[in-house]
Each structure stands twice: as structure tokens, then as C-alpha cells.
Amino acid sequence: MLQADTVQLLCLTAASGVPLFSRGSSKQLPFSVIGSLNGVHMFGAGQGTVLSSCETERGSRVVWRVFQDSLMLIAVSGGGNKALSELHLRRLLENTWNCMVLVLGRDELANVRNVERLKRELRSCYRLIDRLLERGGEDQGFMGDLTHCADCLVPAQPGILQETLDSFTQAADSEFGCLLIRGRVAVATDKWLRLAPQEVILLSTLANSLSGVTSCDYPVFLPQGSPTVAHRLLCFQLLPSAVVCVLCGPSPSLHRVESELVGSFWSPLVETLRGCLEQAERSSLPPSVSLRWDIQALLVINRETRRSVVASSRASSQNPSEAPPLSSPARRWELLRHFYTFAVTRYFTSEEVTTSPTLPATPATPAAPATQASSTPATPHESLHEDFSKGFTHQPTQCYLVTDECKCYGLQTPQHQLYLLTDLSVPTFALRSVATLTLSAVTGATGF
Amino acid sequence: MEAVPPGSVIVADWYRNPDSRDFFTKILHKKKRRVFGLLEAPVMPPHLKADTVRYKVFISGKSGVGKTALAARLAGHQIPNMHYETTGMETSIVFWPVKLKESSRVLFFQFQLWDCGENAMRRFDHMLTSCKEQVDAILFLFSFTDHGSFKDISNQMSRFTDPSDRVVRLVVGTKFDLFMHTDVTESEITRFQEVSRVPVFRVGGDVSEGFGEIAPLLNALAENLWHQDCIHASSASLPPQPHPEDTNREVIV
Hints:
Subcellular location (chain B): Cytoplasm, Cytoskeleton, Cilium basal body
Helix content of chain A: 25-40%
Oligomer: heterodimer
Family (chain B): Belongs to the small GTPase superfamily. Rab family.
Protein name (chain B): Ciliogenesis and planar polarity effector 2
Shape of chain B: globular
Order of helices and strands of chain B: HEEEHEEHHEHEHEHE
Keywords (chain B): Cell projection, Cilium, Cilium biogenesis/degradation, Cytoplasm, Cytoskeleton, Exocytosis, GTP-binding, Nucleotide-binding, Protein transport, Transport
InterPro entries (chain B): P-loop_NTPase, RSG1, Small_GTPase
CATH class of one domain in chain B: Alpha Beta
Number of helices of chain B: 7
Number of domains of chain A: 3
Radius of gyration of chain B: 18 Å
């Protein structure tokens, strides 16, 4: 249906099936296919079922979702090595809808009066949507689009940054402020962190998409917090890749904040900011956290604050010569995403979005991420799809997976989750203690 | 106010002159234009100290005419290869060293370019007000591939400026490289320049030629803004000699 490794996103009116836009893969699906995709969903609806996802034998997937009874989004992914998981496609639909609300507001989308006008207006969402589809951040370890936890950076000296941010935000007549370092949240005000996680992620994405722009004033609707009344997102590039954002009402003006506040609050912190940028180049964790050399990558999620931090070890010097070379950083992030998806869809299910019941259109061939395909424990694929919690009253708190590329360990406590990728040289029986120690090393040293 | 002829206030094509190198290298980084954050500015060694003067420049024009691309071109950022609507206001900072003809004094002009999407401006009232607040110059854009946008220029000029304002006005034709599809003729441009007495600049194509592409426009902006300030200073203050430093313009030392 689609070329391998590509994704296409379609938007249609839910009632009449009029195509509104299509983004993603350069080769657009023919109109007849779009019509059929809409038709099969409509047929299901006529029979009182909701068609939400299907999968072909070659690993292509289609995911449908109707928003506000008004617009339907369909994501189609081709098979291939980089095929997206169903979870990822679902998140993509949700994120896309949120983008549309963010730019246009919910009213505009929920009550379609003039289709042609809506088509024109939707064009203003393309920049953000394309940004989501590019998956550009994946090779730098951005996970927020998948985990719905804000990608964070833990600065070595958060105190002074936090103080400055709080007073700067206050001076701008706002309670919502955030400092992004290389696209990650370094510090934020309490209120900012209490925004819905999807909103935090989208606002960061928006702020990051302004390459080269010195400052901006964007009207934004908050998909959860304020879908019908626009706020203003003001962003200021203090240093290249160090951006401070505030969410404001009608005042103060961009000009005023920039000329009166930015310099006076942030100038004294230039060196601290430079330090953060340098740190971000190496890791999202401060140097005080030392990781074992055989850890390839890790993702720690704070379940209460919905924040996440990733780290990856660099090819280190004390690496014994017999150890196999580490895979590329991009590959490690990819594996980490696969492992996260694997763990939350099978074991840590409370983390997954509650989705409408799935009706597989074709017998599901698990197509999947390379980690599972190559898992060495002789577990048949089918058994991985079995609902673990069926018949069990308890929630799994740990899981592991051994592949021919790396070993993975997942661990959850009431407050945290850790997803760990280690070198093959780590004995499988030691994974649990490595994971436990790593989690306490990260959370203990940073208070994350 | 009428535009000053190029080269009358500042040294024309100074970037080609060897003595400008020390200054122009400060706005470059690895042979590309350096991106400046709000807390940064070019730093010169003590013997070459140059003051910085700040101006706010608003880019006006119909949707799709190339406002964002012009801002990126002038600031030396990567020009987006795809057209996306700007859904809000964006500003970019451009530092441009200039040598005054009379005093041989070197100044860094800091232009803050304000770019605002037309649709956003229509939907949200505060945008236009914010763009006009304390503006020093306006660039009116039209596209050589869209005759409508050229016709619209006189409308825009009457809408955005009233004659008493101290605002420098320049017209820029974008997408000049697409001459195969050009929709605006040279004679129309000439006529427009004669009637409105506002110079028209042409931009388009890739920016491989370095400063040559953008120098005429940036120099004209600098020259006219400086001239405007000098006139204002001499009419408002007592000393007969224009002392531009005395204007209320913020001078960063």
C-alpha cells in the first residue's frame, strides 16, 4: 500500500469523508484507497463497531480515529525495518489532533461549517504536523511524542536557573514559564509542569521548530487546558538552542518583555546557560551521575510529574577491548523506543492510553520491532501478544528481554519507571541489580 | 521621507573593502552567518570598538509572498525549502557593520526583523499593534511571480504609515530568480519608483554569493535609518551639527 518506512497521515471530515489534507510520504495514496479506508471504517460504524486498527501480513498498519465526531484522522504506515508500532501510530493521531487544536482551536475543528475554508485554515498546522512526522528528534533521543512525558534535561545547578525563571515569568505577568536547552525542559515553573503532558510536549516542539528565530509570539490553544480560548506563547532565544518560553494573556507585548525583561533577568546567567548547553551536548544527566560503561541507553520516567530523561553512554575509554562496538546512538534510541513500546503494551499496561477495542482486519502477524524479532528466549511470538494480566490480579513491576543486539530491562516503582538497554556482556541474572542500582543512582543524585 | 541615494551617507559596498574584514568576520561562524541569541552581540577588540544601534524593522506583505524567507535570507539562516504559513509573530536579529562616510566611524546596526503571518494578523488583533509599536522601518514585499501582490503594495503603504511617522519605507520584490514566471515588468517597477519615490529592491535565488546578495538592501536600510535619525536629531536638538549619539536611540557600548 505504501513504500516501506514511510508514514502517511490523512484527515477527512467524519460525516462526509471529504479529504482535508494528507501529509507525510511523498507518494500520496490514490484517492480510491483513501475512499476505501474511509468506507471500511464507515461500514464498521454502521454495524455498531469501531474499527480502530489493522495490520497487513507485510507489516503495514492502518490506524483510524474520529475526533469530536467531526474529523477523522487515519495514519498509514508502510512495513519495513522502521515500521511504526500501533502505539506510536495512535500517539501520532493524538498528537496531530492536538497540533490542530493548538493552532486553530477546538471550535473551529468541531463545528465544520465551510469545508473549503477549513481546508485553507488547516494549512497553518502543516509546519507542526510535518515536524511530528519527520521524526527528526528520534535520533537525538527525544521520546515525548511516544511516552507523553516531557523530555527533560537535569542541569547541574538547577537552583539559580529555577529562581531566575520563576521571577522572569512573574515579571511577564504569567505563571507558566519554561527553559528549554537543546529542546529539552531544563527548568519550568510548577504551573508549566502541571499542564497536560501532551501540551508540554507540543509547546516544546513548537518552540524548537523556530530555528534561527530570535523571539516569537504565537497564539496557542491548549488542547486540554484551554481548547477554545487562545493564549500567547512567547519564546526568546537567549543563546542559540537555549530558549525561554512563557504563556501569557493579552499583555505584556513581545516588544516589552524582550526589551525590558529578557536582558535584565538572564544576562547574569549567560555562563550558566553556556554550561547547560555544553552539558546537553554530552548527556541529559548532570556529570554527578556516573553510569556503568556497559549501559547502552536508558530512559527514566517520573510517573507523578510525567517527566522523562534519557541518557546514553558514549564509547568509553575503560571499555575492555574485547567488548563488541556499541551500536550507533541513533540505533540505540530506536531500540529504546522499541523496548518502551514492548514493555508498556504488554506489561506496564497502565501507562498505555486506553484505546478503543481493536478489530484486526487481517490475522495479525506480529511484525515487529527488531528487538522482538530477534529475541533469543525461545518464546513464540504469539505468546507475547497474550494479555499478561488476564487471570492475574497483580501488576508486573519488572520485565526483561534479551536480543542479539542488547539486553533490556524494565522496572517500575510507584514513582518511577526505568527502561534500560545494556551491553550483551552483562550477565542476564545481573540485569535486575544493574537496573535497580542505575535507577537509584539517577534518582538519588538528581532528585528527579 | 524620501529615500537617500545609495552611498551618500555610508560607504557603499564596504564589505568588499579589506578594512571591513575584522568586522564582518564577527558576524560569521565557520564561513556561515553566526546566529545570535538575545544575550549576545558581536564583540570587538578594544582598538576596533564599534557602537551598536538598534532598529525595529517590520516586514509587510501578502500571505505567501516570502516574508519569512526574506527574514531568513537577511539573517543568514537556512531558508525554509517548503512554504509554511507563519502562524504568529517571529523576530530575527541581524547585525550589520556599516562605515559612515563622513566620519569614517564604524557602527554595528542591529536590525530586528518582525515577520507576522497575514492570517494570524487577521485573526488576532494584537499582532498588528505589536508589530507597529515603536517601528523604525517597514519593508513592503511583493512577489515577482504574483502581480496582485505588486498592485497591493500601494494599499499596504497607505495602510501602514501615516506621513507624520518617522518610518523608513522600502519596497522589496521577492522571487526575482523566477524570471521565467515573472508577472511584474521592469517598466511597472520604474513607474512605481518614480511615482512613490520609494526604491525597489530585488531578491531571490540562492544565497551562495555571500554578502553580495543582501548588502544592497541592508545598506539601504542602514543608510536611511541613520539619515532619518540625523535629521530628527538636528531638528530636535540645539547643536547645529547632527550628533546622532544624542538621539534617544539606545546605543550599546
